[in-house]
Amino acid sequence: MAVSYVHCVQPWRVSSKTRLFFSVGGRCREDRWKSNCLVFASAMNSDVSLNLQSKVEVLLDSVKWDDKGLAVAIAQNVDSGAILMQGFANRDALATTISSQKATFYSRSRSTLWTKGETSKNFINIHDIFLDCDRDSIIYLGKPDGPTCHTGSETCYYTSIFDHLKDQEVEGNRLALTTLYSLESTISQRKEELAAPENGKPSWTQRLLLDDNLLCSKIREEADELCRTLEENEDKSRTASEMADVMYHAMVLLTLKNVKTEEVLEVLRQRFSKSGIEEKRSRKALNYEGNLP
Amino acid sequence: MAVSYVHCVQPWRVSSKTRLFFSVGGRCREDRWKSNCLVFASAMNSDVSLNLQSKVEVLLDSVKWDDKGLAVAIAQNVDSGAILMQGFANRDALATTISSQKATFYSRSRSTLWTKGETSKNFINIHDIFLDCDRDSIIYLGKPDGPTCHTGSETCYYTSIFDHLKDQEVEGNRLALTTLYSLESTISQRKEELAAPENGKPSWTQRLLLDDNLLCSKIREEADELCRTLEENEDKSRTASEMADVMYHAMVLLTLKNVKTEEVLEVLRQRFSKSGIEEKRSRKALNYEGNLP
């Protein structure tokens, strides 16, 4: 099915006084922290925009749309890696996503484009878009403004087949969590259990949650042990093991402070997309005059 | 399309002397570290397997297969969160994935089932399977034995639309990396650049890579600063910021030691799925007699 995308490239059909700034790698001054940004600004001729429009058309032509003019589009959280939702995109939807930087799909039931968040305001703000090797599957890598699922769940994937198959009844839903977030969830659960009536002796995580001195001494100790794997030239497996210890104990502290791992990753993204850590360190290190980044 | 799954439940059509052990949460003694495992073992009647077979049938009935009997199936790395590939599953493919614990798809071009890895031996070993809210999209959450893409790439998603749209030529392919792995990639790149002919003064990351004393002093310092956000009751944003510092500097050490972040997450998964960290700590903490986990 041939799908027109005339309206999609309208933002690039700009006047001779308008230039489309396209910057990748977080170099846009307008928004220091975006790793990829399309910035529409005034005051240049239209050569750049025409060039970009042409590139987009070539790119849209290169996608292997199926017999209904669709490709699978998967929205993924740029920080946590969580798969937020999956829909379908046609040529219009992909073009709109590129230009608007809001994840946009084609609704097969309503035969219309829809931008995630147009009703809920929980947009998925695009940082990059990837095609697979066959060019018939798309990842919208983005940051959601809020829960993605219409049920209010953070993602649409909260039904575990293995939970349903096991004999025990499942209490509530369980999101499809990867390792870091499963650990975070487990630590949070231990914290919640502390508020419940006493059920025997506390677990190790709960002991850490209850004793700031113990927790901080462990974090310092594990960081020291991690360093010693380098200083004393220990093998790789020791390094991985000590780093796991550092992360676990530090995540207990995050849980105590009600800081989500995703918030930490957001800080990291904002920094390293601008070489911010390096910048900060270069400022701190008074004797250092190195290049940035 | 009605799809028979008779062959898929064959493993559960066991003799009266065989029992299917179904365990969730890493409690199987046969494989301490699997967070979810189906273990086929001998010596029980078939009640359990019949019950499970019935549950699988109900579950397969509940999926909203499209007019071709298919649903989208997305394979995701349980540790890194990377989207490895996307295919389609029919009833047979999902049933086979449940029973074999190897990600299995339906090839639309060849009209046959195919298990990822049947040729390359790079299977995707399933840890859990999730359905979305509409029950027409599936996540195969698993651990790949090797690169997933037929090109040898770790994942099939290595074509960035934003890279292709920017004016500069793109050097090589860039995987769809979420924040932690983008940072890891950046640090690795800085390390590789050290081997190249001198290009001005080193960046901060490169200084850390070149000076073990500096790196270790920073890791210890940042761990201490993280602890102080708890001890001195600093606000959440300080905690997130200091944790970002800890992670960045620790990841430089990992890069020096050639340890991948994914390896650390694998250690964490193995531990916390068995409450291993808590177990280890309980052994270490001599005065502690707490319950596990």
UniProtKB/TrEMBL annotation, chains A, B:
Pfam families: PRA-CH, PRA-PH. It catalyses: 1-(5-phospho-beta-D-ribosyl)-ATP + H2O = 1-(5-phospho-beta-D-ribosyl)-5'-AMP + diphosphate + H(+); 1-(5-phospho-beta-D-ribosyl)-5'-AMP + H2O = 1-(5-phospho-beta-D-ribosyl)-5-[(5-phospho-beta-D-ribosylamino)methylideneamino]imidazole-4-carboxamide. GO terms for molecular function: ATP binding; phosphoribosyl-AMP cyclohydrolase activity; phosphoribosyl-ATP diphosphatase activity. It comes from the Eukaryota. One of its GO terms (biological process) is L-histidine biosynthetic process. Pathway: Amino-acid biosynthesis; L-histidine biosynthesis; L-histidine from 5-phospho-alpha-D-ribose 1-diphosphate: step 2/9; Amino-acid biosynthesis; L-histidine biosynthesis; L-histidine from 5-phospho-alpha-D-ribose 1-diphosphate: step 3/9. Transmembrane segments: none annotated. Residues 85-158 form the Phosphoribosyl-AMP cyclohydrolase domain. The keyword Nucleotide-binding applies. Keywords: Amino-acid biosynthesis, ATP-binding, Histidine biosynthesis, Hydrolase, Multifunctional enzyme, Nucleotide-binding. PANTHER family: HISTIDINE BIOSYNTHESIS BIFUNCTIONAL PROTEIN (PTHR42945), HISTIDINE BIOSYNTHESIS BIFUNCTIONAL PROTEIN HIS7 (PTHR42945:SF1). This is Phosphoribosyl-AMP cyclohydrolase domain-containing protein. It comes from Acer yangbiense.
